[in-house]
Structure formats: structure tokens, C-alpha cells
Amino acid sequence: MFVLTHILVYLVVAVAAYLMGSIPTGFLVGKAEGIDIRKVGSGNIGATNVFRYLGKGPGVLVMLVDAAKGWIAVRVVTPLIFQLLASSFGEGARDVGLILSAVCAVIGHNYTCWLNFKGGKGIATSAGVLVAMVPYSLLIILAVWLIVVALTRYVSLASMLASFTLPFAAWLTGESVTRIVVTGSMAALAIYKHKANIQRLLNGTESKIVFRKAAASGASKS
To answer: Which of 65, 94, 156, 165 pairs with 83 at a CA distance of 20 to 30 A?
Structure first.
């Protein structure tokens, strides 16, 4: 019964975090602006594509809400579930639940059930998760991201290099082995979701970030 109770609670945590992460913010903001964001640029529903085709305001909104999804899943939804269903669970069990919710929130964003399991690349949602779980590690990779964007104007390259840095940042800031492994897994998933960007970078066809209202018809993918 003890094991079954743990499994059921973790299942509730996983589903709740997935559903929180699965909210397709970029798609909804695009629809509000009269654009299906999946049909322009890269077809990605994340903040970068929204920045390029809808402008700064919608882009910032999508980025903040996508980050908030990850933070809320870890810091609000999961503790509430434990309070209601598993108040007797120890600190170790709760930590496992937080890690599970972090991973499921990112998976929900990347493979949202509302859009045929096609979503974003998980960078902003991962950032929200990291604020909730390993904030000092986030500061390190944020610095990496800002430097790479400033030097190259490639958001995709900055995101991949920041993701690659993540588990090392977790190690440097004294996080547990479990959290280092989890951040490494999140980094690997984020880099995998950028596989099309990697190909465009190698081909020299990747777009640099531009901040303008609505895409010109000849804008290239990003």
C-alpha cells in the first residue's frame, strides 16, 4: 500500500505538471493576433518565433508565461498536491516529486497534447523550472545565453550553449547528483529539440534575431 500510494501521488504530480506545461502560449497569443504561429517561420510556438513575427510585446509575453508555467508547476502545483494527498511524505519523497514535475512541465511544453504533441523547444519553460529549483545555476547559464546572443545574434546557438552549460553550472553551485543528472537530461532534450537549427547553422542559413512587427514575406526560418 505504501508503494502504491507513492506511485499514485507521483502519477498525479506528473499529469498535473504536464498539463501546466502543455498550455500552448505562443499558439494562443498568435491566434489572438490573427496568426497561426505554426505556419510562419520555423513553425515553432516558442517565444523566438513570436518575437520575429508578432513583435517584442507578444514575444516577451510568451517568454514570461512559458517560464511561469515551469515555475508554477514546481513551486505551486506540486507542493499543493503533496499537501492535499501526501502530507506525511518525507523530504526525500517530496524532492523526487519536484524533480518529476520539473521534467514533466518541460515535456508538456515540448510535446503539448493540445497541438498533436508538437510544441516548443522548452527553453523558457526550463528557465522557469530552474528558477524554482536551481536559481544559481540559472544565473550562470543566463550569462552564457546573453553573451552568445550579444556576440552572434543567434538565439538558437545561445540556447544550445546555455543548455550544454547547465549540468556543469549545477555541479559548480553544489547541487545534488540527482539534480545534476536531471539538469543534464533537460539540457539534452533542449539541444535535441534544436536539431533543425543545428542543420541551418551548419548550412549558414540560420536567421539572426530581429525585433520587428510582423514578418516580411521573405523572412527565413528560425
So the answer is: 65
Q: In the structure grid, which three cell numbers stand for residue 185, read together?
A: 537530461
The answer to whether 101 and 74 have CB atoms below 8 angstroms apart is yes
> Nearest CA to 17 among 180, 173, 128?
128
For residues 63-98, one letter each, b for 16 or more C-beta atoms within 10 angstroms of the residue's C-beta and e for the rest, the string is bebbbbbbbbbbbebbeebbeeebeebeeeebebbb
**Residue stretches of the chain with pLDDT short of 70:** 1-2, 210-222
Closest CA to 106 of 185, 6, 160, 197: 185
Q: Which pLDDT does position 209 carry in this prediction?
A: 77
Cα–Cα distance, 172 to 169 (Å, whole number)? 5
Residue 63 grid coordinates: 517568454
Domain boundaries along the sequence of the chain: 1-132, 134-210
Backbone angles phi, psi at 206, to 5 degrees: -70, 135
Cell of 159: 540556447
Alpha helices in 2-134 (DSSP H): 2-21, 25-32, 47-54, 56-72, 78-85, 91-110, 123-133
The structure's pTM equals: 0.86
pLDDT of residue 218: 43
CB-based contacts of 215: which residues, under 8 Å, 6+ apart? 40, 41, 52, 53
